[in-house]
Amino acid sequence: MTIKNRTALITGASAGIGKAFAHHLAKERYSLLLVARREERLHELADELVKKYNIKCNIFAADLNDPSAPAAIMSYAESLGITIDILINNAGLSGKTAFAETPWSKLAAEIQLMITSVTELCHRVLPQMQKNGWGRIINLSSLAAFSPPGASLLYTGIKHYILDISQSLDMELKPQGIHVTALCPGFTHSEFHDVMGTRDAANNLPSVLWQEPEQVVKEGWDAVMKGKPVCVPGLVNKVIASSVRPLPMSLQYFLGNHMNPFKE
Q: What is an example of a GO molecular function annotated in this UniProt entry (predicted)?
């Protein structure tokens, strides 16, 4: 199968890293199925990509907080005769209130979005990838997966799960021609902090910690194509990740409790 006949499914495609992945893969001549909540933005992005790169691009507006969304996405792809050869599980968010004060419905939606839907989409795309003997999956983890846990946050635990499950899947599937990579970016210029209401805190961080989405995407795509199960993009992030992991658990707890930039 040629690149021209391969299709990438990208979640959270309307902004940030997801949008950068859409441009990167369109430039590489892959067809696209873009998924996000904001349909208007999806239409604008699809029109831009088709005009600029002359590729096939379909969209599907869905909220992955909804347990029915992964099945609906795959049903839509099937109705179009689309085979998913590449999966970019990018959609995500982070809670910003204390765990005990957050309604369970919001916590459940966070888990659905970043654990259950990610895992389910991986499971649903695999049969066709296995049949074709080729597939690429990138799951967005985070530098937070290597960091101490943050007070009140599910985020670090969720991203640690994504890091672990991606490696487990890669071990199982690589002999079948399917590569799975956990992409673990640090602070990346996007709308993430605006949506989470943490822009002021993020702006106080040193500029050396920040990357552009295009840099993250390039390193992530190179990694999955080379069969690397984990990608921490950027030299500074690599140093941070390698420095934190050997620390004793008690020290990690202390650092997470007292050095969380978003803890009030």
A: oxidoreductase activity
User: What would you report as the CA-atom Rg of the chain, rounded to the nearest whole angstrom?
Assistant: 18
| Model confidence, pTM | 0.88
Nearest C-alpha neighbor of 95 from the set 209, 204, 200, 195: 195
Residue 191, pLDDT score = 53
SS3 (DSSP) at 100: helix
- The CATH-assigned architecture of domain 3-258 is 3-Layer(aba) Sandwich (3.40)
What pLDDT does residue 204 have? 62
Nearest of 58, 56, 48 to residue 10 by alpha carbon = 58
Q: Is residue 151 within 8 Å of 169, Cβ to Cβ?
A: no
Residues of the chain with pLDDT under 70: 1-4, 189-206, 208, 246-247, 249, 252-253, 256-257, 259-264
Q: Look up residue 227 and give its amino acid.
A: G
pLDDT at position 170 is: 95
3-class state of residue 119 by DSSP: helix
d(CA 133, CA 44): 34
Q: Cα–Cα distance between 237 and 7 in angstroms, integer?
A: 30
For residues 156 and 171, what is the distance between their CA atoms, to the nearest angstrom? 23
**Three-class DSSP category at 28:** coil
pLDDT score recorded for residue 199? 43
Please provide residue 210's backbone torsions phi and psi, each rounded to the nearest 5 degrees: -95, 145
Could you please report the per-residue DSSP string of 144-189?
Answer: GGTSPPPTT-SHHHHHHHHHHHHHHHHHHHGGGTEEEEEE---EES
**In angstroms, what CA-CA distances link 258 with 149, 161, 173, 252?**
11, 23, 40, 10
| Token pair listed for 54 | 């002359």
